[in-house]
Amino acid sequence: MYSSKNLLPGMVDGNVEIFVEKNDLKALMDGKVIPFAQLPFTTIALLKEEMYKDNDVLIALFDMHPRSEMKRIEQFAKCRLGGLDFAPDIVDGSLQDGEFWDCPNRGTCPHEGILCKLPVINGKRLEKKEVNILQLTSTDMTNEVIAETLDVSLGLLHKLKKNLYAALRIQTKQEGTLLAKFFNLI
Known about the structure:
Blueprint: E1 17-21, E2 24-29, E3 32-35, H1 41-51, H2 55-64, H3 69-81, E4 90-91, E5 94-95, E6 120-121, E7 124-125, H4 128-137, H5 143-150, H6 154-168, H7 173-182
Antiparallel strand pairs: 1-2, 2-3, 4-5, 6-7
Helix pairs in contact: 2-3, 4-7, 5-6
């Protein structure tokens, strides 16, 4: 039997999934993939309302698109919700908190951490170093190589991993890899 849990949001339910495909912003809703600009007015208004809640977000968006409100809304959606995943971006008219996705500007964007958000797992918003730990421990690197890559001692890496795993309620590297995959970290 095929479960709806295996389907992307918006395919067979009333949810909306916003994502970037080949640098174009699109949405999956009502079983169709549509350009972002074709989203209903109420969805655009929901995104606009959310972006106006944070002054730092507005400053960043005006810096990027000083002349076009629609471009600011689109940029907000791209940065905050651009990953294609199994967690809907809009459920029953409510916008989710944001999601991590592999933005091509990560590491070079002057507005990183303002427009985009790191994921919340079990009520904890991850920090950049914690994301890096999950990403690196999801590879075949040894702890020694990971510690060297992060420029920390091996003892500190073990302590950071122990604290992170406790906060995420996981015990193994394999569980961390599954979480990292689910939250678009890898």
